[in-house]
Amino acid sequence: MSAAAISKSAWAGPERRRVYAIRDRLRLVYGIPVDRPHGDALAELILTVLSQSTNDRNRDVAYFGLRERFGSWEQVRDAPVGEVELAIRRGGISKVKSARIKAILATISETSPAALDLTWLADRTVPQAQEYLCSLPGVGRKTAACVLLFSFGMRDVPVDTHVSRVGTRLGLFRPAAPFEELHDSMLDLTPRGQELELHLNLLRHGRRTCDARRPQCDACALARMCPSARTFKVRSTAESRRAS
Question: Whole-prediction pTM value?
Answer without folding.
Answer: 0.90
